[in-house]
């Protein structure tokens, strides 16, 4: 089912009328296919109702929610618009933001079940310093504290501290303030196991230790939808998911 604002809802049988879990996915026209495959990977494995919304910058501008100029170091159109997630969720309940370059390998319910009301947000606390100077299709690779923490975040949208994230703040604050979560104290940032934001090319699965196997792969350097990254680690998993998505799309369109 498609909602009026472009989101997709999946309502598994026997959900008892459970409110859908809202998921906001960063969207960039250069990565349209990545977004569709990410969405497919979530919907395919979810045992709970979910509502998926792409964060499309042009739509936000038309709606008067986003007006800041794009900086030279912004590698995607959602570099800052991602922080509108609590506002887009009406500052109510838990919602998730995730970059479009993710591939989910596990049921999103497992991640949703980690949500802890003691925290304003929850994410993977990466210690990540990339070796590359460029990523994706030639975008500048930047290095800063808490890098990649904001690429997948569970937001406790009703938390008083997150009401700071108004469109005015998101459009005016610095990258450091937003990406380092400086509106929060350290104790208000909960931690999620790294396997839910498993960085391709950085994190490693340990043989014989299932707790290190990725549940969501993040192609943060660039995924196989870019020519330069066609042979990256886990490219085969993404390509398999893409082929499945394509077949289902073709079947549903009757072609």
UniProtKB/TrEMBL annotation:
Gene3D superfamilies for the chain: Spore Coat Polysaccharide Biosynthesis Protein SpsA, Chain A
InterPro entries: Nucleotide-diphossugar_trans (IPR029044)
Domain of life, source organism: Eukaryota
Descriptive protein name: Protein CDI-like
Species annotation: Linum tenue
Upper classification of the organism: Eukaryota, Viridiplantae, Streptophyta, Embryophyta, Tracheophyta
């Amino acid at each position: 089912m498609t909602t009026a604002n472009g989101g997709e809802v999946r309502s598994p049988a026997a959900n008892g009328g459970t409110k859908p879990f809202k998921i906001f996915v960063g969207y960039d026209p250069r990565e349209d296919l990545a977004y569709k495959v990410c969405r497919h990977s979530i919907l395919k494995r979810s045992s709970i109702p979910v509502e998926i919304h792409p964060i499309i910058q042009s739509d936000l501008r038309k709606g008067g929610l986003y007006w800041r100029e794009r900086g030279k170091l912004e590698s995607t159109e959602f570099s800052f618009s991602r922080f509108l997630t609590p506002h887009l969720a009406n500052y109510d309940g838990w919602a998730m933001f995730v970059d479009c370059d993710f591939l989910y390998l596990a049921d999103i319910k497992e991640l949703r079940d980690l949500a802890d009301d003691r925290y304003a947000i929850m994410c993977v606390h990466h210690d990540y310093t990339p070796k590359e100077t460029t990523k994706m299709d030639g975008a500048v690779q930047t290095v800063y504290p808490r890098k990649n923490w904001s690429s997948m975040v569970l937001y406790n949208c009703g938390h008083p501290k997150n009401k700071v994230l108004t469109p005015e703040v998101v459009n005016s604050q610095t990258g450091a303030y937003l990406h380092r979560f400086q509106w929060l104290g350290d104790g208000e940032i909960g931690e999620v196991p790294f396997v839910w934001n498993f960085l391709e090319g950085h994190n490693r699965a340990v043989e014989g230790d299932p707790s290190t196997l990725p549940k969501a792969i993040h192609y943060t350097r660039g995924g196989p939808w870019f020519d330069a990254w066609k042979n990256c680690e886990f490219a085969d998993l993404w390509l398999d998911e893409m082929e499945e998505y394509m077949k289902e799309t073709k079947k549903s369109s009757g072609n």
